[in-house]
Specification:
It is built from six helices and 21 strands. It is an alpha/beta fold and about 400 residues long. The protein has a 21-stranded mixed sheet that branches.
C-alpha cells in the first residue's frame, strides 16, 4: 500500500505547479496500482478514489477552457462600464467550483485564478485601445505630514521614490470624449495633494507617481482593474485598494498598512508596521520580510504564504491571523531568536504540521474526514519575554508552520 507521504508529495507538486494535473493523476494511479484490480475491497476503494480524482481534474480543465474563451470574447465586445461584471462573473464561477471540489484539485483552481489576474494585467487596456491618450503632468512641493490621495480607473498606479522634494504625477487618460480636464480633479495645498476621478465609466486613468523620502501622514492609492505597485514610502497610515488586479508593495514603512483587492494576488515584502491588514479573494497572499506587531491576512481559494516575520523594535509580542479556503497556509518564521509560540490551527479535509521545537500540544482533535484541529504552545510560553501568537484557518487545505 502506498504511504500517505508519497501522495501528499504528489499533491504538493501539483499545487506548486511543478507537475500538471494529468501527470499528478498518472502518478497517483501508479501508486495505487492497476485501476482494474478488483480482487480486494481495499483495492476497489482506492480505485474509486482515483477515478473520482481524475474525473474532477478533467471537469476543472473543461470548465477552465470554456470560461477562458467566454472571458476573452466578452471583454472584447462589452463596454468598459460592464467590464467589472464580466470579470466578476468569471471568478464567481471559479469560487463556486472551488467550494465543491475535493482538496486534491484545489491546486488546479489556484492556477485558474492566477489566469484571471494575469489576463487583467495584460489585457485591461485593450478595452480602451481605440481611445486617444491624453497626457497630464502634476507637481507639488512635498512637506512632512501631508496627505496623498490619488485615484485611477481601469488602469495601473505605479509609485516610486525620487531625490526631488516634489510630488510628481504623470497621468494618462483615455476616454471617448478626449476630455481629460473634466475627468481629473486636482486638489493641492500645504496639507494635502489629491487627484480624484469625476467620471469612471468608459474611461481609463493610469498614474506614474514619484514622491520624496519624507514622512507623510496618510497615503492612499485607489484604482480598478489595474495593478498597484509601490516602493519605499514612509507614512502614518498607508492604503492600497483595487480589484481584478494585483498589488505589490516593497519597502513600505507605516504605522498601519491596509491592502485590499479582489480576484488577484497580493505580494508584500520588507514592510515595517504596527498593524497590517491584507485581504483578497480567489488568489494568493505572499508576505515576506516583515516587521509587525499584528498581521491579519485573509483570502479565499488562494494560498497564504508568509516568511521571515519579526518583532518591531521594542515590541515583545506578535499576533498573526491567517485565513483562507481550498488552499494551503505556509508560515516560515525563520526565527533565529528565542521566541515562544502559541498556535491555534484548524482545517477541514487537510492536515496540520507544526515544526516548532519544544512545543506542547494542549488539544489534538479531528473534525470531519481528514480534518484537524491543533492547539499548542511552547514549553516556556508563560515566562517568555518575546511571544508569537498564530491563528491559522483553512478548509480543504493543509497548514504548515515552521519556526
Amino acid at each position: 500500500m502506498p504511504n500517505n507521504e508519497e501522495k501528499l508529495l504528489i499533491l504538493k507538486m501539483l499545487e506548486e505547479g511543478k507537475i500538471s494535473s494529468e501527470e499528478a493523476a498518472k502518478l497517483l494511479e501508479a501508486l495505487e496500482g492497476s485501476p482494474y484490480d478488483n480482487t480486494r475491497e481495499e483495492g476497489t476503494t482506492r480505485q474509486n478514489k482515483q477515478i473520482n480524482f481524475q474525473f474532477e481534474v478533467e471537469k476543472v480543465k473543461e470548465k477552465m477552457q470554456e470560461w477562458k474563451k467566454d472571458l476573452k470574447k466578452n471583454i472584447k465586445v462589452h463596454k468598459s462600464n460592464e467590464f467589472d461584471k464580466v470579470v466578476e462573473d468569471f471568478v464567481d464561477k471559479a469560487e463556486k467550483l472551488g467550494k465543491n471540489l475535493a482538496v486534491t484539485t484545489y491546486g488546479v483552481i489556484d492556477k485558474m485564478v492566477d489566469f484571471v489576474g494575469s489576463f487583467i494585467d495584460t489585457n485591461a487596456f485593450n478595452v480602451f485601445g481605440s481611445y486617444k491618450v491624453e497626457d497630464r503632468s502634476f507637481e507639488w512641493l512635498a512637506a512632512e505630514g501631508m496627505d496623498i490621495d490619488i485615484e485611477g480607473a481601469n488602469g495601473n498606479i505605479v509609485v516610486k521614490k525620487h531625490d526631488d522634494n516634489k510630488i510628481v504625477v504623470k497621468s494618462k487618460v483615455r476616454s471617448p470624449q478626449n476630455n481629460a480636464d473634466e475627468i481629473l480633479t486636482l486638489s493641492q495645498d500645504e496639507s494635502k495633494f489629491s487627484i480624484k476621478i469625476n467620471k469612471a465609466i468608459n474611461v481609463s486613468v493610469t498614474h506614474e507617481i514619484y514622491i520624496p523620502a519624507i514622512k507623510f501622514k496618510n497615503i492612499k492609492f485607489t484604482t480598478t482593474n489595474g495593478k498597484i505597485y509601490v516602493e519605499d514610502t514612509i507614512s502614518e497610515d498607508f492604503q492600497c485598494n483595487t480589484k481584478n488586479a494585483h498589488i505589490e508593495i516593497i519597502g513600505v514603512n507605516s504605522n498601519n498598512i491596509k491592502l485590499s483587492t479582489k480576484n488577484a494576488r497580493i505580494h508584500a515584502s520588507y514592510l515595517i508596521a504596527k498593524e497590517i491588514e491584507i485581504d483578497t479573494t480567489n488568489a494568493t497572499l505572499d508576505i515576506k520580510h516583515i516587521k509587525a506587531e499584528k498581521i491579519r491576512a485573509v483570502s479565499t481559494n488562494g494560498r497564504l504564504l508568509a516568511e521571515n516575520i519579526k518583532h518591531p523594535d521594542d515590541i515583545k509580542e506578535i499576533d498573526l491571523y491567517f485565513k483562507t479556503s481550498n488552499a494551503w497556509i505556509k508560515i516560515n518564521m525563520n526565527d533565529m531568536n528565542n521566541n515562544a509560540y502559541k498556535v491555534k490551527a484548524q482545517t477541514s479535509n487537510g492536515g496540520i504540521n507544526l515544526l516548532i521545537p519544544q512545543i506542547i500540544y494542549n488539544n489534538l482533535g479531528k473534525q470531519g474526514l481528514g480534518g484537524a484541529t491543533v492547539e499548542a504552545e511552547s514549553v516556556n510560553f508563560t515566562d517568555a519575554s518575546h511571544k508569537v501568537y498564530i491563528t491559522a484557518e483553512t478548509a480543504n487545505g493543509y497548514i504548515e508552520i515552521v519556526k
